[in-house]
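Ticket #4471: complex job returned nothing on first submit. Input attached below:
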Amino acid sequence: MNLNELTQMYDFTGQTVVITGGAGILGGEIACALVGCNANVAILDREPSLANRLIERLQSPVGRAIVVYGDVLDVNTLRQAAETIEKEFGKLDGLINAAGGNKPQATTSPDLSFFDLPIDALRWVFDLNIVGTMLPAQVFGRRMAQRGSGVILNISSMNAFRPLTRIPAYSAAKAGVSNFTEWLAVHMAQEYSPRIRVNAIAPGFFLTTQNEFLLTEKETGKLTPRGEAIIAHTPMARFGCPEDLLGAVLWLLSPASAFVTGIVVPIDGGFSAYSGV
Ligand SMILES: NC(=O)c1ccc[n+]([C@@H]2O[C@H](COP(=O)([O-])OP(=O)(O)OC[C@H]3O[C@@H](n4cnc5c(N)ncnc54)[C@H](OP(=O)(O)O)[C@@H]3O)[C@@H](O)[C@H]2O)c1
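Support reply: We reran it on our side without changes. The output follows.
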C-alpha cells in the first residue's frame, strides 16, 4: 500500500467528469463537490440557465466547471456536447447519468387509475430514465472505450429493488437502470477494457422538485401520508440531503474503488434493510 496514493485518491486534478442533469438538485451538489475536489466538470442539462444558481458554489483554485446544452434523449446534442467538452478540457474520464425523474401524469392517484395513465406520460418517464441513461453511455462511453479507461456512474433508486406504489413507469425504468448498470459493467470490462468501470447509486428519499408533490402537502408543507410512511420505514428517520450522496459518489469515481464494477449502492438511511417489523 502506498499511503501517499491512498490519501490523494479524492484529488481529481486533471480529471474531467460530465454530469447529465447536472443543473438539478442531486447532480448540482455532485458537480460542486467534484469541482471542490479539483475536477473539471461539464454540467450538461437541457436548461443550462438552471446552473446559474450553482455558480457561487463552483469554487476551486484548480477545478473548473462549464455548462453545456444537451438533451439526454437527443443523441446529436450529446455528440455536440462531447465535442465541446473535449475542446475545453481534452479527454473525458467520468460520466454521471443524473438526468431522470417522474411526473404526476405517470403516477396513480384517486383521480387517475393505473388503467388511465396516458401512454405519453408513461413513455416520457420510461424514456427519460432508461433511454436517457443509455444514450449518454453510448456517446461518452465510446470515448472511454477508445482510450481504454473511464468511469460511468448511473443513478438508480430504491424502487429498483422493490417497486414503490403509485409510480409504475418510474419503478420499472429504475429497475432497468440497475440491470443496465450490471450489463454495461460486464460488457465494457470484457469487450473494451477492465479499466472501464460502471456502477450506480440508489438514493433513498431526498426531497426534490420531482417528488415533493408526493411527499409534502402543497398548501401546508406538511408530510403526506406517503411521506410519513417513508420516514417510518427509514431507520435513520429522516429524508436524505444531497450531501449524503457525496462519499459514495467520490468513492465510485476514484481509484479507491478500482476493483468495483457492476454494483448498485443504496444510500437510504437503512430503508432497503428494514422489513418494517
Ligand atoms: N430526489 C430523490 O429522492 C431521488 C431518489 C432516487 C433517485 N433519484 C434520481 O436522481 C437523479 C437526479 O434527481 P434530482 O432529484 O436531482 O432531480 P432534478 O432536480 O429534477 O434533476 C434532474 C435534472 O435533469 C434534467 N433533465 C430532465 N430531462 C432532461 C433531458 N432530457 N436532458 C437533459 N437533462 C434533463 C432536469 O432539467 P429540468 O428541470 O429542465 O427537467 C434537471 O435539471 C434522477 O435520475 C432521479 O430519478 C432521485
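The chain is about 40% helix and 15% strand. Closing as resolved unless it happens again.
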